[in-house]
Amino acid sequence: MSTTSSKNNEMKWWQLSLFGVGCTIGTGFFLGSGIAIKSTGASVLIAFIVAAIGTYFVFDALAKMTAKKPEKGAFRTYAKKAYGRWAGFSIGWIYWSSEMLIMGSQLTALSIFTRFWFPTIPLWVFAAIYAVLGLAVLLVGSKGLNRLENIFALIKIAAITMFIVIACFAIFGIIDGTREPSVPANYFPKGLLGLWSALIFAYYAFGGIEVMGLMATQLNNPKEAPKAGKIMLMLLTFIYVVSIGLAVYLVSWRTFNSKESTFVLALKNYKIPYIADIFNGALIIAGFSTMVAALFGVTTILVSLAQDGDAPPFFANKGRLKVPLPAFILSAVGLVSSIVMSLLMPDSIYEFITTGAGLMLLYNWMFILLSANRLLQPNYIDRAKYYVGMLFIILAVSGTILSKELRPGFFISLGFVVAIAVVALIMHAVWKRSDTKGPGTMFVKLEKP
Asked: Do residues 75 and 96 lie in contact, with contact meaning Cβ atoms separated by under 8 Å?
């Protein structure tokens, strides 16, 4: 189902850029960057630059397809047009299942951050509160979500800017600390293999552009989608590289871990009142905004699947709410199930599952590039960009095999993909036998001739 520019599509390109910043800067950056630094030291900056370039190629492909013909289903609709119904079905359900799994870990992280101030309250209480708030935001519709994400984006940019300013004060001796800032003695403490395994965390920090692609249908002029993405990624890359560069300048790369924010650790040597509270608040805002954006994404994809007959059609039934009630209920059930899994399953097993789910998002990015390569009839330069983007994604995914902690997640992601592929193969036989014309017949009752 295509979406064309209308009076209801009033979003400007700069608003989409801010929306992209809002739904991208999250715990993947605030916490994941610390894991990346621990894996590869100061050379993490190379990983972020490579991931930024690869992410730009993916969004550029998605934006150009949007500019040519906006589609509500975005990447899954383009995959369907490029490779057939099996591709749209598979990509849609891979995205839906991966995001639902990831949201449980996001809610758990949000609960852990909030217990920084309220240590005696159980995690499930905060998880339930944030889940309800996220679902409430979903009900305000895409315009309300855009405004909220813009506000979140400004808050997160302000927090990172504050860190950059404080770090500069420390470097120039304006504030005193227990350790003198110094240039890292070795940029590759774990060699090229360490850099390779850290690349996946850099990519995680840019996760969210697919949601930006879904929102791009709201642009007043869809042809401005590429410009919105370019500005957003330039801003993100600058923020990421400068802030992480300062962090590894302030403290040793061995200091960083997955339990504390990169920036809180970097400023621990400087006795600055309330700095931990400020960044803890920024972490909560970051995690909540990316969770809400993901919730918007899975609901939109579910409606698109239903409209194409690749999910029960009642999920697309509109009512008085901003989103179809059945789709809203399924998202709520999925969210609750994900919270229960994250709180009851052993930490290691759940981390493997969410790592696998994160890798599944990169498989979607790969299909965006493949779809653009077929649908856009790109020139030699664009075709080269898409192939380089695919190569970077392959490097990031294959790097997880090098890490004992990430390797199980890689195989879990393959398991999910194979399971969905088997279902798609079964349904392909059903579709082939059907004589019904039009979009999908998987869940549509066939009429007798």
From this structure: no
